[in-house]
Request: fold
Amino acid sequence: MPVAAGRYIAERISDARFVEIPGDDHFAECTPHWQEFTDTWLEFVTGARPLHQSERRVMTVIFTDIVGSTSRTAAVGDGQWRRLLDSHDRIAWELIDRHRGTIVKSTGDGVLARFDAPSHALEFSLEFRRALAELGIQIRCGLHTGEVEIRENGDIVGTAVNLAARVEQAADDGTILVSSTVRDLLLGGQPHFSDRGEYSLQGFDQPWHLFALTE
Reply:
């Protein structure tokens, strides 16, 4: 139906308010702007627009990355690389539930995941690295624990997320690198770490002490 039809009807209904929502079809519940549609409907029914509040929680964030993905793609070809990525993603999803985590999103040749406990994140990273090594895929991981904001679409944002990304970028090939926060939280536990010293991480004024997980 043309949008003019909606305007025409609204003009002829007493006290009507016409709301035009972005989109190119009438399946509003399935479009990217579904929440705007739903909020408008709820406001009509209840008289008040719902409030959307972000949730903030302390959690361990992990970024993973396949080492040398660009050169590997060129060496094996797009088709073979796509199959390797499919195996990578399948393994990640299989392991994440086992270690009580949540995959936030794929980063193309890695994943961003969150965990309620740093020990679960470390266990996941270790098993994920081992499983991918059997396929000839080498990864590096970066972990940090801090307060993050969970957005309505499930994504996570905040300084802790940015720091975890920088830790991953600082990791050597095949290394599981953690911030001093993660290491301090696990003092007295089973994991063993080697001191990698202080790093100047992009976007952070002060250097961060980083540690590598040793098996």
The mean pLDDT is 89. The CA atoms of residues 185 and 198 lie 18 Å apart.
